[in-house]
Amino acid sequence: MPPEQEALLILTRQQFPELEGVDCAVEPILKGGSDRHYYRFEWAGEKHAPMVLMVYTLARRDNPKFVPATRRLAALGVNVPAIYAFDEQRLFVWLQDLGRDDLHAHKDEPWEQRRPLYEATLREAAKIHGVRAETLGSDEVAAMEPEFNEGMYEWEQNYFLEHFVRGHLGRDVPDDHAAQAALAGLRQRLALLPRCLVHRDFQSQNVLIRNGSAWLVDYQGLRPGLAEYDLASLLFDPYVELSRGERHELLGYYAGLRGLSLPELREIFHLCAAQRLMQALGAYANLSRNQGKTHFEQHIPAGVKNLTTVCQEAPGLAPLLTLFT
User: Fold this and answer.
1) Does an H or E element contain 197, and which?
2) pLDDT of 219 above 90
3) Residues 116, 131 contacting (CB under 8 angstroms)
4) Residue 175 reports pLDDT greater than 90
5) DSSP for 15-52?
6) pLDDT > 90? residue 173
7) Three-state secondary structure call for residue 245
């Protein structure tokens, strides 16, 4: 066992004295683009359940918000991992091990097998989205990540322009370009809509499947925003291919869960999809070009394809096509 993992095992046994002397296999969990590190501890025998240790840093402001976000979501009845222990000084969190199966792993299965998993995922999302932003106290909002407002949407758009359009594609975007007006109209429209709690990174690799139920992870970005942004993150996920008909079925299912008008939901969904996909493409370009995580580049074609589809379907977004096609 590498010295780093041996040290983590020693600290884990100190945290849980009943595990002293119990043989354990330690496995790094390598996925995602964050600076958090995860390790799976599998104990010998059937008496002790496996657990996951999350080791984080303070380099990102959302990292310390994982624990309070977990507690908030658990109180809402959302399926999230149980916290076994929290060492705030060492920045360690020991969590329930939800297993290795995520929604992304089912991407190649027939739709009749995938659909129930997506419906289970949407049921968890509906629990989060049922919390209206106006019901949150100022202290609660201050403890979360900054809410989605016009400034946040503009930041995401500029992130896309800087890292994907200019950095990845090598294109300039004049201030008087028609796309700039379309971007301004998009962020102003979204900023006027009523907000609720949102996951913020609601994509297939952040949904674990356990006994047919969906369990959420990587939700430290919890904040007030638009439910349709989460829906767009899941249903236009560049990691997974969904057909137009499949997206329509799932939107209809979600609308039924929450008693929403499907045509109105679909309209805002497409606007949020454009916003989310621009953010994702900016992230893929930044992670691959500037942070050495080149495997993210493989998702750019699917992101471009999805963003093209959205801009062709959503009124007023066609000028954005000239930025990246």
Assistant:
1) strand 196-198
2) yes
3) no
4) no
5) HSGGGTT--EEEEEE--SSSS-EEEEEEESSSSS--EE
6) no
7) helix
Count the residues in the chain: 325
Residues 6+ apart with CB under 8 A from 214: 79, 103, 117, 120, 121, 123, 124, 207, 208
State phi, psi for 29 to the nearest 5 degrees: -105, 110
Domains recognised in the chain with CATH numbers: 3-96 (3.30.200.20), 103-324 (3.90.1200.10)
* Residue 25: Cβ within 10 Å count: 13
Report long-range pairs for 160-163 (Cβ below 8 Å, ≥24 apart).
160/278, 160/279, 160/281, 160/282, 161/282, 161/323, 162/282, 163/282, 163/283, 163/285, 163/286, 163/289, 163/290
Give the integer Cα–Cα distance in Å for 23 and 286. Answer: 41
**What is the sign of the dihedral through the CA atoms of 105, 107, 108 and 109?**
positive
Please name every residue paired with 83 in a beta bridge, in sequence order, or none if there are none: 95
Structure tokens at 223: 């904040």
d(CA 229, CA 189): 13
CB 271 within 8 A of CB 189: yes
